[in-house]
Specification:
By secondary structure, chain A is an alpha+beta fold. Chain A is about 30% helix and about 35% strand. The longest helix of chain A is centred in the last third of the chain and has 13 residues. Chain B is α/β, with parallel strands linked by helices. In chain B, helix 3 packs across helix 10. The chains are: A alpha+beta, B alpha/beta.
Chain lengths: ~200, ~450
């Protein structure tokens, strides 16, 4: 059995409450699974989780599903849980530089579609995105990967202009400016991310 | 994921509070261009500047776009011109200045510093040549800036040099009478002149520096003011130590911005990175004033008792924040008080709240000295010399840099206004409360010995 087959991806979407993560990890630990990738967030009161877990001795899918549902106290037909073999997609991760996109202004239907379409047309991969509200204004902040071959100044200008047409302000800046101004490390050695890539 | 508050804080500093990199200054050593033949010397100077700085502006623009932070000025600081002028006549000084001006124009920078000399211990013929040629050099060129170091804590004050500089400064402003003496605004006289200052008019590649270096000048008085405003809004009774803490934190962020961009420019140009100089340098734009910082702290009338303490607090907090942010902090680092360039300080002088004597007191605790102050056109050499002596004495005794950049405005009297436009700003002519009476002292010449604390080996 290959390593990939021992690794599973698991998603959970349930109303948020205290103890959700405890319940998920209890079931996983019960099969001696090791969590090796993890991301959780709470959106509009819903707890959402994506993780991958690797087992020395993989359990049957049904057994893991039952253990999780029992631990989370959700019924067998509730579509709150998805478990499947991990396909291994890390190799296809886009190559480029990390930038942070920020859009601010009055919210409107189709705004995120507009932004995502713009970025997609220019081969910019969205890796993280969050939306907040500040009074009447919506604030989108996203982490994206811009291909190294991109004309960054042109891209920034087009991005600003594209959102300005909708009455919003927008910016696209390299992530290191935000790290440098808020994190403590020696700039003479480069940013932590640059060191990690070396 | 980067914290969204961090993103918004940084963008607010740039987009709303005028955070910028005020200057990226490339230092170039011209020592290899020394030549008995002035023509060959000029050719070498031109070639070396264009070779070293040809890609500076384009690289800065590229890095500025990448991080979304404006790099307002790209400038050059060459090694002291006096070294090239040893054994040369006045024609060579003008030819060198013309070459510096032309090369700066060719590579797209707005100012080039280094028409300079260190004369705190004595003057060589080349150094005298620099001082004596200032009227011609500063009026015939557009971009050349000059500086002379007349005093140091280790050597004391060269009073002969002070007098010579005062005479030359007065001639310079009168030679440029058509522009109200503007040429004098491109010259500064120093005590303890730093060798890695990226800001004009005093930028020069010091004798201890290498073949080339990138130094960065960061500003951001608007960012500091807004940080204090936010603190006071939330805590109306905020104490001064709380304000100092807020300034320190903000200075950290501003310094980091400058170092990040400066290091990347240096890396791309293949030139060593030198220092980041966080100096609160105002511009005439609203929201970019050092005076507004003092107002936010509670000094309603800049110049009132308490102002000097406010300057000391800001200057110290800026240095502390900068020192924590980077191990490569240098230059002047602190708070400038250039009167004409700061609308609040300028207005305070016009109202009479801020006098020359109060400004002098403030220079004992700020990072530079008497800066961008307009004097009457008929000011005497002795009065100018006395002003310089007083200011450099503060620097020598307090082991700090002090400078004098004043403009005797031909034909102007106390109370008259003049406007240089752009970053140089506007101001009202002022003068010392007692402008004469020290002539005999100043004319004695010689040397004021180094203070006792210079003997600390």
């Amino acid at each position: 059995m290959t390593k990939t087959e021992k690794r599973w991806i698991l998603t959970v979407l349930v109303p948020d409450r205290v103890g959700v993560l405890r319940d998920v990890t209890r079931a996983v630990a019960g099969f001696q699974g090791n969590i090796d990738a993890f991301r959780q967030s709470i959106v509009a009161g819903l707890y959402s989780l994506v993780l991958t877990v690797t087992f020395e001795t993989p359990p049957e899918l049904g057994a893991l599903d039952r253990a999780l549902r029992e631990s989370l106290a959700i019924g067998p037909d509730e579509p709150a849980l998805l478990i499947m073999p991990y396909g291994g997609s890390e190799a296809s991760r886009p190559v480029g530089s990390r930038y942070v996109a920020m859009i601010r202004g009055r919210d409107r239907p189709g705004l995120l579609f507009h932004i995502a379409s713009f970025l997609s047309r220019r081969s910019v991969n969205i890796e993280d995105w969050q939306v907040e509200f500040d009074g009447d204004e919506v604030i989108h902040i996203g982490q994206v990967t811009v291909p190294d071959a991109a004309d960054i100044r042109r891209l920034q200008e087009d991005f600003r202009a594209s959102l300005e047409e909708l009455g919003l302000s927008a910016s696209l800046c390299h992530e290191n400016i935000f790290r440098a101004t808020h994190e403590i490390y020696g700039l003479e050695r480069g940013t932590p991310r640059e060191e990690a890539h070396d | 994921m980067i914290d969204s508050r961090d993103v918004l804080t940084t963008l607010r500093m740039v987009q709303e509070e005028n955070l910028d990199v005020r200057t990226i200054t490339l230092g170039i050593n011209l020592g290899e261009c020394a030549d008995r033949d002035p023509r060959r010397m000029a050719e070498c100077v031109h070639r070396r500047i264009v070779e070293k700085a040809g890609a500076l502006v384009e690289t800065c623009d590229e890095i500025s776009g990448r991080y979304g932070v404006p790099i307002v000025n790209k400038r050059l600081a060459v090694s002291a011109a006096s070294g090239l002028l040893e054994g040369h006549g006045p024609e060579a000084a003008c030819a060198l200045a013309d070459t510096l001006d032309a090369a700066a124009r060719e590579v797209g920078v707005d100012l080039i510093g280094g028409f300079s000399a260190w004369v705190h211990g004595g003057m060589t013929p080349g150094e005298r040549r620099v001082i004596d040629s200032l009227p011609e050099v500063l009026t015939r060129t557009e971009r050349v800036c000059a500086s002379v170091n007349v005093a140091s804590t280790r050597s004391g004050i060269n009073v002969d040099a002070v007098l010579r500089v005062a005479e030359s400064l007065l001639k310079t402003s009168h030679a440029d009478a058509g522009r109200d003496g503007f040429a004098a605004a491109k010259f500064v006289v120093f005590a303890n002149m730093p060798e890695n200052n990226p800001f004009m008019a005093g930028a020069v590649l010091g004798v201890g520096e290498g073949a080339g270096v990138i130094n960065v000048g960061v500003s951001g008085p608007g960012v500091i003011k807004r940080a204090i405003d936010r603190l006071v809004k939330v805590h109306p009774g905020a104490t001064l130590d709380a304000i100092a803490e807020e300034i320190k934190h903000t200075a950290f962020r501003v310094t980091r911005t400058g170092e990040l961009l400066g290091r990347e420019v240096a890396r791309r140009l293949g030139i060593p990175f030198g220092v980041v100089d966080l100096s609160l340098a105002p511009t005439p734009h609203v929201g970019d004033s050092v005076g507004e910082i003092y107002q936010s702290m509670g000094i309603a009338a800049v110049g009132a008792p308490g102002t000097t303490a406010a300057v000391a607090l800001v200057n110290d907090a800026v240095k502390k924040g900068g020192a924590f942010a980077s191990s490569s902090v240098g230059g002047l680092s602190g708070a400038f008080i250039p009167v004409m360039e700061d609308p609040v300080l300028s207005a305070a002088v016009t109202r009479g709240d801020l006098t020359l004597e109060k400004l002098e007191a403030m220079t004992a605790v700020c990072s530079v000295g008497l800066d961008m102050i307009v004097l009457p056109g008929d000011v005497s050499v002795e009065t100018l010399g006395g002003l310089i002596l007083d200011e450099v004495a503060i620097g020598v005794t307090n082991r700090k840099t002090t400078g004098v950049r004043v403009i005797p405005a031909p034909g102007k009297k106390v109370g008259d206004r003049l406007d240089f436009g752009g970053l140089f700003g506007a101001g009202t002519v002022t003068e010392p409360a007692c402008p004469s009476g020290a002539e005999i002292f100043v004319r004695r010449g010689g040397h004021i010995p180094a203070p006792i604390h210079s003997m600390n080996n």
